Every structure is written in structure tokens, then in C-alpha cells.
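Bumping my old thread because nobody answered last time. Still need a sequence for this structure:
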């Protein structure tokens, strides 16, 4: 008989954390291993079932003892902030468990530390965990491969007013897909934050525009524009649960995979 997979959640009291808690409780084959909150959080000691809006308490409370929770878990699902995710990556590497990272906004040095942790842990890291976005990335890669540099590529994204990083992790994921399609390096071929007398658009560059406002979960468009026509590929997120479901799918997929750094394309068989 196959045992249930024990999954822990970071930022349990946040919007994504609460969604994950509820889904784990409702999904056969999964059990909640614990919920992590930062020291000083008002949610510390709060029952995770009540936190998730369930009708009954689960008898598991939010804790800031990440090590104790991680050592008893099979997987950690982590939508937090870069500094916290790096600490969690070190702990999951020690525990040799699956670490699903949906956090965005990492610096290059941070990425190197995650790669080092992946020598010991199974890490699935993606700027977006949804099936639709990862299918979109595959289409963007294919379109960029088919269209030459005379077609300008612009990526437009909009998120809620509380989002702190820009461009979004999803926009960068799509930009990376476009760069791979053209066999170029994104960091050396991107344009961001145009303002004032910027001069003409560089041929072959991948442009980004970030919009913020209201409660938008996530809208993304990739525009391919030539002298006489445009192609627009896009995705609209209407429910935050799509990211949570994708992250839990990744947590299950990673069981028994062994150390390594993977992404959602690997999980969905799109690599």
C-alpha cells in the first residue's frame, strides 16, 4: 500500500499558503506535514485547518521552526521571498527532500546557491507553476524559432498592486523561452523600463513591460510584431489555485527522482 506524501508549506498564512493548505487537505495521497511562518508572524500558533478556512481544526499549528517541519516532510512547497527560499533550500538539501520553489525575484548569486542545494535535494523551480503558462512558453519557444530577428518580441505582464518584483517571474520565463528559440542570451538581448529619449528599438531585443494594479492574479502577453503583421500569444490566470495545483503536482513528481534542478517543463513532459 502506497503511503501518503507529507507536504509542508511556507508562508502558510498568506494567500497562496492558505490555498495550498486547503488543497493538500482535500487531495487523496497527500497529508499536511506542517506550515511555516516567519518569526514574529501574527499567524504563529494558529491552527492550519482554521487558517485554510476548513470547517474543523487539524491539530497542526503554524510554526517558525522550519528545520523541525522539513525533517519530517517528503516535500516543501515554497512561495515566499528569495532570502527565505535560500534558507529553505539549505534545509531541504540537508533533509534530502523535494523542494518546490515558486518564489521569484532571485539574483544571479541566489541562483548559484539554489544550484548548489540541488546537488543534494530534488528542486523544482519555476517562475510559474500553471499548466497553461508552461504550454504557452513552449509555443513562444517554437514561434521564436520560426520567426527571424525582423520580428520584434514584446512581453507585457500585469499583476496586483502588492507584487514587489518586476518583470514577473512568468514574464522572465517567457522571455527565456523566446531567447532559447532564437539561440540567444536573454540577459544580453532584453530591453526594460523605457522612458524618455531611448532611441530606436534594437533589432532582436526582447522587450518587457510591467503593469501593476488592483487584484489582478496574472495576465501575460507575448507579442511578435513585424512591419506588416502581429502575432499575440497570451495567458490569463483567473484563479490562484492553478499555481497551487501545479506546485503540488511537482511535489508528487519529484518523489524518488534524486538530486537535481528541474522545472515545470520537466514535470509536464514538455522539455
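Sorry it took so long. Here it is:
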Amino acid at each position: 500500500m502506497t503511503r501518503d506524501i507529507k507536504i509542508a508549506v511556507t508562508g502558510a498564512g498568506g494567500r497562496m499558503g492558505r490555498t495550498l493548505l486547503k488543497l493538500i487537505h482535500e487531495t487523496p495521497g497527500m497529508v499536511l506535514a506542517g506550515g511555516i511562518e516567519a518569526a514574529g508572524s501574527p499567524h504563529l500558533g494558529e491552527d492550519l485547518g482554521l487558517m485554510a478556512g476548513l470547517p474543523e481544526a487539524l491539530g497542526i499549528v503554524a510554526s517558525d521552526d522550519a528545520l523541525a517541519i522539513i525533517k519530517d516532510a517528503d516535500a516543501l512547497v515554497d512561495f515566499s521571498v528569495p532570502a527565505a527560499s535560500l534558507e529553505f533550500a539549505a534545509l531541504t538539501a540537508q533533509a534530502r527532500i523535494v523542494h518546490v520553489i515558486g518564489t521569484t525575484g532571485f539574483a544571479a548569486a541566489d541562483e548559484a546557491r539554489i544550484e548548489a542545494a540541488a546537488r543534494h535535494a530534488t528542486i523544482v523551480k519555476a517562475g510559474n507553476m500553471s499548466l497553461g503558462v508552461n504550454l504557452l512558453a513552449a509555443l513562444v519557444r517554437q514561434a521564436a524559432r520560426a520567426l527571424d530577428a525582423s520580428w520584434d518580441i514584446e512581453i507585457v505582464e500585469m499583476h496586483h498592486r502588492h507584487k514587489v518584483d518586476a518583470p514577473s517571474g512568468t514574464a522572465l520565463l517567457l522571455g527565456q523561452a523566446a531567447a532559447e528559440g532564437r539561440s540567444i542570451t536573454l540577459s544580453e538581448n532584453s530591453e526594460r523600463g523605457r522612458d524618455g529619449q531611448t532611441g530606436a528599438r534594437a533589432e532582436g531585443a526582447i522587450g518587457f513591460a510591467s503593469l501593476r494594479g488592483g487584484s489582478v492574479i496574472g495576465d501575460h502577453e507575448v507579442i511578435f510584431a513585424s512591419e506588416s503583421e502581429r502575432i499575440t500569444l497570451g495567458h490569463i490566470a483567473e484563479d490562484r489555485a492553478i499555481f497551487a495545483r501545479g506546485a503540488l503536482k511537482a511535489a508528487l513528481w519529484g518523489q524518488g527522482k534524486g538530486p537535481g534542478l528541474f522545472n515545470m517543463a520537466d514535470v509536464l513532459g514538455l522539455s
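The chain has nine helices and eleven strands. Let me know if any region looks off to you.
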